[in-house]
Design brief:
Layout: E1 4-15, E2 18-29, E3 33-38, H1 44-51, E4 59-64, E5 67-68, H2 73-79, E6 80-83, H3 95-105, H4 110-123, H5 139-150, E7 157-161, H6 169-184, E8 188-192, H7 196-199, E9 204-209, E10 212-217, H8 219-225, H9 231-246
Parallel strand pairs: 3-8, 3-9, 6-7, 7-8
Antiparallel strand pairs: 1-2, 1-4, 4-5, 9-10
Helix pairs in contact: 3-4
Keywords: ATP-binding, Nucleotide-binding
Pfam family, one: ABC_tran
GO molecular function: ATP binding; ATP hydrolysis activity
Length: about 250
């Protein structure tokens, strides 16, 4: 069986009387591209914050890279990369300065930072841009750089929150080519997205509705289970079912 990088059992988070994440159970294997879908307020971000060690669960348990999210948050942070929905690099620093800064934040030594910085600039074909301020770069370049920087310390898993929001279709496709390459090399990718077509690129997809994980499986399995032509139809059927339940 594939090595499990994430294991969650009845993971729950409440804020007062409100249940943001409601007893979700799932696992994610090494090198898997795992898609997390759901409307705003469905609980995706809260679940991700628990998995990255930023928020303690109210009930249930989860382990990420072998560490417990409730008691070993600092160890988890050393094993993961994170790319937020909002661009997270420093616009007033150059490409090269950002890479070196984050290398230091992730605990790399000076020699390793120099080596990794040169490798990233070459891989991204940004040699001519290495001394350009990041704030002046097109969004697509910024996002590719942010993704690469999140991987500079070779984490076991990278969490990505809406990474292609606002990016043009060609850049989105190039971005997913990067994701495939990283996964093939053994890094697990946990990605939230509101682009339903991107769910088709994932090995497995979970769909959250009102804090619950209402569907989980490969895109092909979900389409067969819900008699749908695409993941968007699956999502619509689940949302309509939730509306009926509330009614």
């Amino acid at each position: 069986m594939n090595e499990l990088i994430i294991e969650a059992q009845n993971l729950t988070r409440k804020f007062g009387d409100f249940t943001a994440v409601d007893h979700i159970t799932f696992d994610v294997g090494r090198g898997e591209i795992f898609g997390f879908l759901g409307a705003n307020g469905a609980g995706k971000t809260t679940a991700m914050r628990m998995l990255t060690g930023l928020l303690s669960p109210t009930a249930g348990e989860a382990r990420v890279a072998g560490y417990d999210v409730a008691s070993q948050a600092e160890q988890i942070k050393q094993e993961i990369g994170y790319m937020s929905q909002k661009f997270s690099l420093y616009g007033d620093l150059t490409v090269y300065e950002n890479i070196r800064l984050y290398g230091g934040i992730y605990g790399l030594g000076d020699e390793e930072i120099r080596k990794k910085s040169a490798e990233l600039v070459e891989m991204l074909q940004m040699e001519a841009l290495r001394d350009k301020r990041v704030g002046a770069l097109p969004l697509g370049w910024k996002q590719k750089l942010a993704f690469s920087v999140a991987l500079i310390h070779e984490p076991k898993i990278v969490f990505m929150d809406e990474p292609t929001g606002g990016v043009d279709p060609i850049t989105r496709r190039q971005f997913w080519e990067q994701i495939y390459k990283v996964a093939e090399e053994g890094t697990t990718v946990f990605v939230t997205t509101h682009y339903m077509d991107e769910a088709e690129y994932c090995d497995r997809v979970s769909i959250m509705v009102d804090g619950r994980m209402d569907a989980l499986g490969s895109p092909a399995e979900l389409k067969k289970q819900f008699e749908a032509e695409d993941i968007e139809q699956v999502f619509i059927k689940l949302a309509r079912g939730a509306d009926r339940d509330e009614g």
